[in-house]
Amino acid sequence: xxxxxxxxxxxxxxxxxxxxxxxxxxxxxxxxxxxxxxxxxxxxxxxxxxxxxxxxxxxxxxxxxxxxxxxxxxxxxxxxxxxxxxxxxxxxxxxxxxxxxxxxxxxxxxxxxxxxxxxxxxxxxxxxxxxxxxxxx
Length: 137
What we know:
Layout: E1 45-47, E2 51-53, E3 66-68, E4 73-80, E5 83-87, E6 93-97, E7 101-103
Antiparallel strand pairs: 1-4, 1-7, 2-3, 4-5, 5-6
């Protein structure tokens, strides 16, 4: 960031510049009922496109309250009449069209449902065969 002001001389007081004060509209505040704390740490679906969302269950009947980006993982909580109530990774509880959701298991880069090696992973070479009792004596 560049500053077009000349350098301050020794002994000269600092000048503090503040932005113009503005009052935000009521639509800039997330309603208390639309915040989930703590946010979820497991997700069921992801958005297939950038999708408008609504705080209430009105859906497309009213103007959207915001947009969730493509690929965002969400936890599906309620499905009703083509509308889904989901929670985003930041804890935003909103309504989106169900057609914009895809199960995480259907995504090519979906996270594994459980930690550990794949089911078909070979055992390590130094693993003992349970049928062997030990070295021949």
